[in-house]
Write a structure and sequence with these properties.
Distance between the termini: 24 Å
Radius of gyration: 17 Å
Low-confidence stretches: 1-10
Shape: globular
Structural class: alpha+beta
Number of helices: 8
């Protein structure tokens, strides 16, 4: 089903927006992406999220709101299986536990993050763990290290060469997915199932 069928306003969540901000996650090369959108009615927003989840669930993807303020929503598209893998990293586990997270279940971690976003003015520094950023880069950012080597999709404190390759891969993926969406493929067809990664 095409996103043009839904007329919820210019900034309401649509296929173009998901492809623009979440192509690497759709392609299975990144754990998660997040983006914000405007909405006019919360019920309509929830309907859109449910609609996309009905397309994504069989692909191993989940879309959820991390934060809703006024008429803006911060949305999180992620692969729970990838997040589970990421949370098994010893550095990630240690840091998240120090910050009060229960790391046994990804859902508990995401719920804790949602709670922190409700009370934080900005983003909690550990949010990078939920987006698939390398643990050493998230740790460097949390520790407010001034020795950042490079800034791309995130601040790089660890392996700069690998990060640059990843940023390039993410951009190529976004360009390719945007082109395929323009040719008529839907996000449902663009989303790669976890078993096919």
């Amino acid at each position: 089903m095409s996103s043009q069928i839904f007329d919820f306003g210019v900034n309401m969540i649509c296929e173009n927006m998901i492809v623009k901000y979440c192509s690497p996650t759709l392609a299975g090369i990144k754990t998660a992406n997040m983006f914000s959108c405007c909405f006019s009615d919360k019920k309509e927003l929830c309907g859109r999220i449910s609609y996309f989840n009905s397309l994504f669930c069989k692909k191993g993807l989940r879309l959820m709101p991390l934060q809703i303020k006024g008429k803006r929503a911060l949305l999180y598209l992620y692969r729970p299986a990838h997040l589970l893998r990421d949370l098994k990293n010893s550095m990630t586990c240690r840091i998240l536990r120090e910050l009060g997270y229960c790391t046994e279940k990804p859902e508990s971690c995401v719920a804790h993050l949602v709670g922190k976003l409700r009370v934080c003015e900005g983003f909690p520094h550990e949010i990078g763990f939920f987006l698939g950023y390398p643990p050493e880069d998230v740790s460097g950012f949390i520790n407010n290290s001034s020795k950042c080597k490079f800034v791309g999709c995130w601040k790089v404190y660890g392996d700069e060469e690998t990060a640059r390759k990843l940023f390039d891969e993410y951009q190529k993926c976004t360009n390719a997915y945007s082109e395929m969406l323009g040719r008529g493929l839907s996000v449902e067809h663009l989303a790669i199932a976890d078993g096919n990664i």
